DNA sequence: AGTACCATGTAAGCCGTTACATGATTCT
DNA sequence: AGAATCATGTAACGGCTTACATGGTACT
């Protein structure tokens, strides 16, 4: 049921079309929740049926702009504050990291190296976002979340570097 | 398709029964991949059909011990080294953290406080695991992974403390 | 007129959760 | 004998991905 609340949450920030929500899922939510347009449009229809969101405008190309209703806001708050969080996760990257020690040293180094490249890109992109947020006129409520992302990725980057060093100097057949 | 490789990976560490795999998913993999026995048993049957695992023994209570085959090891290596990683994640906790700034200060503090309690428990449990691993006779290949878990949770803990402080001293109606 | 991108929708099939179901072994 | 735990399986349902499908708008 998380998709429902992800959509409500994004609409609580600002009214949006399904297309805009799809992009936001790709950009801001890619590190915690992922959804495609084929899931988002039907979900918006369901939320509208339940009066948790409403259409507040029609734009070019048949686009519909949705906004959260008071009932939707109440539902969202209820979930965030009162529902028991499900702490389980699904992260293929995490699984890969867990299994990498099974590889022989050469393969292991190669996969750590590949991950390191990706984390560096991730960090660069987050630092850009941070710069944008700082330059914005209004203080942005989501700035701390960006900061957390940077810290976690920094820890990951350092850990990967250590593993690479250990593999290189260790019992490798190199 | 990740479940397949998670199971192959665990069997590459040591032969196990479906029941043991279920427990390992609960303990070691709960932070990256989650699976119930109702998914694991059918997956083992499929892997056996594909000759990626084989039954190597029957124990008490009709239990079957599975081991990975050479073909299974090759398949696992191929996935870890050559397949393009899927970096998308699904974490309800991450989503909640992302949406928490939408709450009013009192609710926000309450949810951060709840998360902090959980992270502290997580850290305590990881530190226990680290102690066990250090006390083990053979050097454990997965020790660095435990270390990474501790570092990430430490960053999270500190971040949550900062958010709590900021909420308390900030523009709350408290 | 053609291409690229904006924008929304539906359908088939796979993956995962919850619930149902059964039997073996150990402990009291 | 009864309860708890070990151990394996199946079925129904819902969520998610991939693929199919359509039309609008802007640019060249």
Textual characterization of the structure:
Two copies of one chain form a homodimer. The first copy, chain A, is mainly alpha-helical. Chain A has two domains: 2-81, Winged helix-like DNA-binding domain superfamily/Winged helix DNA-binding domain (Arc Repressor Mutant, subunit A), CATH 1.10.10; 92-167. Chain A is 66% helix and 9% strand. Chain A has seven helices and four strands, in the order αβααββαβααα. Chain A has helices at residues 2-13, 18-27, 37-49, 70-82, 92-99, 105-135, 143-169; strands spanning 16-17, 53-58, 64-68, 89-91. The first copy, chain A, has a three-stranded antiparallel sheet with strand order 1-3-2. In chain A, β2 (53-58) and β3 (64-68) form a beta hairpin. In chain A, α1 crosses α4 and α6 (105-135) packs antiparallel against α7. Chain A is elongated, with a radius of gyration of 21 Å. The model of chain A has no long low-confidence stretch (mean pLDDT 94). At the A-B interface, α1, α4, β4, α5 and α6 of A face α1, α4, β4, α5 and α6 of B. Chain A binds a DNA duplex (28 and 28 nucleotides) through residues 1, 3, 17-19, 22, 34-39, 41-42, 45, 59-64.
